[in-house]
Amino acid sequence: MIKGLTALSLAVVIATGSTALHAQSTQATDEDTSEATQLEDQLSFGEEGPQIGQTYTAEVIGDWELQCIKTETDEDPCQMYQLMADTENQPIAEFSLFRLPEGGRAVAGATLVVPLESSLPQQVSIAIDGQAARRYPYAFCNTVGCYARIGLTAEDVAAYRAGNSATITIVPALAPDQQVQLELSLTGFTKTYEKVSIADQ
Q1: Could you tell me which residue, 77 or 54, shows the higher pLDDT?
Q2: What is the pLDDT of residues 144-163, one digit of tens each?
Q3: Rounded to 5°, angle at Cα 109 from 107 and 114
Q4: Residue 170 · residue 148 · CB < 8 Å
Q5: How far apart are CA 169 and CA 167, in angstroms?
Q6: Mean pLDDT to the nearest integer, 53-64
Q7: For site-directed labelling of 131, which of 24, 29, 86, 184 has its Cα 20 to 30 A away?
Q8: What's the pLDDT tens digit per position in 120-150?
C-alpha cells in the first residue's frame, strides 16, 4: 500500500512538475517572443532600391523634390518636381523642370500638368510674386491631364530664383467665367535647380 501510494504520489509529483515546467517554458517563450518583437520594431530590414527605369525621389529641398530615373550608369538624370494641391489639400497639378544645353534661348524647360476639365482656349498663366503673368498654351491632353510645355529663359529662371512663390491660374472648362489659382512654392528652388540634370538633345 505504501509502495502504491508512493508510486502514485511520485506520478502526481512528476505530472505536476512536468506541467509546471511546461508552463514556465511556455511563459519564458512568450516573454522571449514579446521581447524579440519589441526589439525588431526598432530595427530596419531595408528595402529594395529603385529598378532600372523607375522614378525615385533622391532628395527633398524646401518644397521641391529632386526626382531621378534609375539607369545603368553611375549618374541618374534628375529633374525638380512639385505637386500642388487645392484649398482642401487635394492634389490638382504637377510642375517639373529640367535644364537645357547651352546655345538656345531657353536655358530650362518645364512641364505643367493640370486637370482635364481645364479650358484649353483660356490657356494657363504664371505670375511670380504678383508680377505680370505670362500665358502658355496647352500642348496636349491624355488620361492624366492637360500638359503645358514651358520654355524658360535665363531671365525667367532668375525670377524664379529670387521669388517666393508663383501663382498658376487655370480656367475650368465648365465655368469659363471663373479662375482657379494654385500656389507654386519657390522655397528651395535655387538649391534644387543647381542639382538638376541637363537634358539630352
Answers
A1: 77
A2: 999 999 999 999 999 999 99
A3: 155
A4: no
A5: 6
A6: 94
A7: 86
A8: 999 999 999 999 999 999 999 999 999 999 9
Question: Is there a contact between 96 and 150 (Cβ–Cβ < 8 Å)?
Answer: no
| CATH superfamily of the domain spanning 55-193 | Invasion associated locus B (IalB) protein (2.60.40.1880)
Q: What are phi and psi of 46, to 5 degrees?
A: 75, 175
Q: Which three cell numbers stand for residue 97?
A: 523642370
Query: Is residue 189 within 8 Å of residue 136, measured between CB atoms?
Result: no
- pLDDT for 97-118, tens place per residue? 999 999 999 999 999 999 999 9
| Band of pLDDT at residue 28, cut at 50, 70 and 90 | low
User: Which of the 8 DSSP states describes residue 38?
Assistant: H
Beta strands in the chain (DSSP E): 55-61, 64-69, 78-85, 91-99, 108-114, 124-128, 134-136, 140-141, 146-152, 165-170, 180-185
Confidence check: pLDDT of 69 > 80: yes
Q: In whole angstroms, give the CA distance from residue 189 to residue 108.
A: 13
Distance CA(103)–CA(80), nearest Å, equals 22
Q: Which strand (E) or helix (H) includes residue 154? A: helix 154-162
CB 137 within 8 A of CB 147: no
Hunting for cell 538649391 — which residue is that? Answer: 191
What is the b/e burial string over 188-198, where b = at least 16 CB atoms within 10 angstroms of the residue's CB?
A: bbeebbebbbe
